[in-house]
């Protein structure tokens, strides 16, 4: 099978990035895998593996992504005799996929990695109404729709997609290192006598970290031996640092850059918290679970599907300062509950598909779309 995918992740041009590593494995499932990436100028065609080729649109502006992508896609489909197109969102790239399906008669899979249609965060974004109209036009015409969580699957009921065309397959990562590896350092040596609360990810607006810091202010007032570690980078970093400073939390809220050794962070912290407004899946939650770290999270991504409230985690139905504060205080005070949900979480992660099983499921998604 020759597959063309269309998306916007420029990290594919970094050969050592996690997404490039995943794509190489997907490439092994196909005769050829060709990938168009919406980019601005400054990128070059790249051969990621023997049969995996990446093409940037090198557009002068975002408004030209679709036009430049269409030009590239037509040439690739003609020259490479593509069997299946797989787009990485239900919006602009899906629109290109529909045009290719109509012009060349090839099958189309649309992948959805974000909970775009149930989230107030996405509904408030500029151009959302236009993008939703694109999704309404594209999704019913696809031969297959892959979603990464049950919440996303449920959100598609409004689009009148035949249920048999929707394929649920969460994002996969090799969690064995979090299950089995020993930490190379102990955060409690850096923060002796402290209760360590950890967050890991991209410091961006949808992660709701201002709400987390406001909640932590109350927690820290009650338990002054608590510390909040935020590991990651992103556009909100300076704003969040200023918030911590304004709340006089400079020594209690500590910012770390991206970490190569997250195992040690997960395994030597006391509690993990995620308070995002929206998530497609969220690997950090699963990494924390695999590491035996108890998790508090908002009702996003794997909540309700992998993370079950009071079984292997704490799921907040209506996140707010009081709700987050209450959950943090309860778990800080209740070591037995922390231990119970952490042990069950690690056991549940071990039941997830291994890499070989996952790749077989990924290929099945392509095949179902091709047969659709």
UniProtKB/TrEMBL annotation:
<protein>
    <recommendedName>
        <fullName>Glycosyl transferase family 1 domain-containing protein</fullName>
    </recommendedName>
</protein>
<feature type="domain" description="Glycosyltransferase subfamily 4-like N-terminal">
    <location>
        <begin position="34"/>
        <end position="170"/>
    </location>
</feature>
<dbReference type="InterPro" id="IPR050194">
    <property type="entry name" value="Glycosyltransferase_grp1"/>
</dbReference>
<dbReference type="Pfam" id="PF00534">
    <property type="entry name" value="Glycos_transf_1"/>
</dbReference>
<dbReference type="InterPro" id="IPR028098">
    <property type="entry name" value="Glyco_trans_4-like_N"/>
</dbReference>
<dbReference type="Pfam" id="PF13439">
    <property type="entry name" value="Glyco_transf_4"/>
</dbReference>
<dbReference type="GO" id="GO:0016758">
    <property type="term" value="F:hexosyltransferase activity"/>
</dbReference>
<feature type="domain" description="Glycosyl transferase family 1">
    <location>
        <begin position="189"/>
        <end position="346"/>
    </location>
</feature>
<dbReference type="InterPro" id="IPR001296">
    <property type="entry name" value="Glyco_trans_1"/>
</dbReference>
């Amino acid at each position: 099978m020759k597959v063309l995918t269309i998306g916007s992740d420029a990290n594919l041009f970094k050969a050592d990035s996690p997404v490039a590593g995943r794509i190489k494995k997907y490439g092994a499932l196909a005769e050829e895998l060709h990938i168009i990436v919406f980019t601005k100028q400054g990128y070059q065609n790249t051969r990621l593996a023997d049969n995996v080729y990446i093409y940037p649109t090198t557009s002068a502006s975002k408004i030209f992504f679709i036009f430049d992508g269409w030009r590239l896609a037509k040439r690739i489909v003609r020259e490479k005799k593509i069997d299946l197109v797989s787009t990485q969102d239900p919006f602009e790239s899906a629109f290109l996929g529909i045009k290719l399906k109509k012009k060349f008669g090839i099958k189309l899979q649309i992948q959805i990695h974000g909970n775009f249609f149930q989230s107030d965060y996405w509904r408030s974004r500029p151009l959302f109404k236009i993008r939703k109209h694109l999704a309404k036009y594209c999704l019913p015409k696809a031969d297959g729709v892959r979603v990464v969580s049950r919440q996303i699957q449920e959100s598609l009921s409004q689009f009148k997609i035949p249920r048999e065309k929707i394929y649920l397959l969460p994002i996969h990562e090799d969690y064995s290192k979090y299950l089995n590896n020993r930490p190379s350092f102990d955060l409690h040596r850096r923060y002796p006598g402290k209760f360590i609360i950890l967050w890991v990810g991209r410091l961006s607006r949808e992660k709701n970290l201002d709400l987390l810091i406001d909640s932590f202010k109350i927690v820290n007032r009650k338990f002054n031996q608590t510390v909040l570690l935020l590991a990651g980078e992103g556009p909100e970093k300076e704003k969040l640092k200023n918030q911590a400073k304004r709340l006089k939390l400079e020594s209690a809220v500590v910012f770390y850059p991206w970490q190569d050794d997250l195992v040690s962070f997960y395994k030597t912290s006391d509690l993990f918290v995620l308070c995002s407004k929206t998530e497609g899946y969220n690997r950090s939650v699963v990494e924390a679970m695999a590491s035996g770290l108890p998790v508090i999270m908002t009702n996003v991504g794997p909540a309700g599907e992998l993370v079950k409230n009071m079984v292997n985690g704490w799921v907040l139905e209506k996140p707010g300062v009081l709700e987050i504060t209450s959950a943090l205080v309860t778990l800080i005070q209740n070591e037995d509950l922390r231990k119970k949900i952490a042990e069950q979480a690690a056991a549940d992660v071990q039941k997830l598909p291994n890499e070989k099983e996952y790749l077989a499921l990924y290929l099945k998604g392509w095949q179902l779309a091709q047969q659709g």
